[in-house]
Amino acid sequence: MDLLKILRSFEEFLFEAVSWLLFYPLTLWRIVRGPLAAMDYSDREQGDSEEHRYDDALSPPLFLLATIVLANLISLALHVPPPQETSETTHILLASQQNLVLFRSLAFSLIPLVAAVTLLRHQKKRISRETLRAPFYGQCYLAAVCAACVSVGGAIFQRPELPNAVGAAIMIGGAAWFLFVQSHWFARRLNVSVGKGAGIAVWAMVRAVIYLFAILIPVALI
């Protein structure tokens, strides 16, 4: 009986792992082709049953995690040197690729978290797990593309034989794309002008960066 359960669990795991090879590029194409439509899709899926939720795509948090893993693999392929160990905490984080991927995933998750909280505050809604989940999930789709651009661009910067202009173009282009979509998302959700939506988007991004540095500085010192 236990062996049968193990085999069934392995069967489910194998199917899920292989299906990522199909649904990751499909999800990426959906986001690039229509980011706002992809975010609307995520919102609709929240109302579906847990069994059928995101049946034809990767869920946003999983997509963000998979993107961080792929970006980390690209850095390894480019032989990018790891960050310097400046404290005991950074030594623990850099001790394994799993720890580094997990930390980067949590760091980039600050972007959708701050954006989701910003939306709820402007809508004057109570912040709870239930109200936060839908905007956070939708924002994870955008954050994944932004994380990919920043990670790949940063990896190119750290390779002296590769042109820094390419890395800069990837990072700036990714950030510009993110803020452009974010501005329209806030404008549509809050029923305000795109200009005001852009201001909200930029301020949310600035706060996310501040929170990130507030986490990184103690990590580098402790």
Ordered list of secondary-structure elements with their pairings:
Elements (H helix, E strand, L loop, with lengths): L1 H32 L1 H12 L13 H18 L10 H6 L3 H12 L1 H13 L6 H29 L6 H27 L3 H28 L1
Helix pairs in contact: 1-2, 2-7, 3-5, 3-7, 6-7, 6-9, 7-8, 8-9
Beta-strand percent range: under 5%
* End-to-end C-alpha gap: 49 Å
Radius of gyration: 19 Å
- Please count the beta strands (DSSP E, at least 2 residues each): 0
* Largest sheet descriptor: none
Shape: globular
The averaged pLDDT comes out at 83
Taken in chain order, the helices and strands follow as HHHHHHHHH
Helix content: over 70%
Unreliable sequence segments: none
Notes on the protein architecture:
The chain is mostly helical. It contains 9 helices and no strands.
